[in-house]
Structures are given as C-alpha cells and as structure tokens.
Design goal:
This protein is of the alpha+beta class. The protein contains four helices and three strands; from the N terminus they run αββααβα. The longest helix has 19 residues, at 37-55.
Length: 99
Amino acid sequence: MSGFDPHAREKAPSQAWVLARNSEGHEKMAWLQTMDSYDFTAAAGVRSVEKVLAENPMGATTPALAFGADFVLEIPETERVDILEPSSEERSIRELRPS
C-alpha cells in the first residue's frame, strides 16, 4: 500500500465539517478532528467489528445508526466540537448549496 509514511501521518490530523438536517429542517453542525485518515479508517473499522460482535445489530446500516451518534468519539484521538449557532460564513455557504 502506498501513501504517507508513518512520520508524515503523525503530522497530518484530519478535520471534517459536518451538517445534519432532519425532515423538519432543523440543522446541527459540528467540527470533527481526529488522527490522520489512514489510521482513523483502520481504527474505526476495528472498533466497528468489535461493536458488531458485542451488540449484534440487525441489517445493513451506518455506524452512527447501529452504534449511536457518538460512536465516532470512541475512536482514539477523535474530538467533536458542536456548533450551537451557525456563523454568517456558514449561513452563506448553505445559501449557495442546492437544497
């Protein structure tokens, strides 16, 4: 497998901006920061298998639906910063997106 070497990955944490909207149009936003994406993917995969073996969820689903919205916080070096009110910049970004 090619990609970043371990030394480079130590210096490359991953961040994500998340927006979720329910059927009533209520929105929640958050930032997620975690280890580099290679290590995060491996750790999340292992943790998912552990949870499946322990909890035996039924059917095909996402990790959040199967294990709860905070599942991602079980991954080492992962933090979520919830945003209570969108900034004017975030509102502008949403206005540019198609609904």
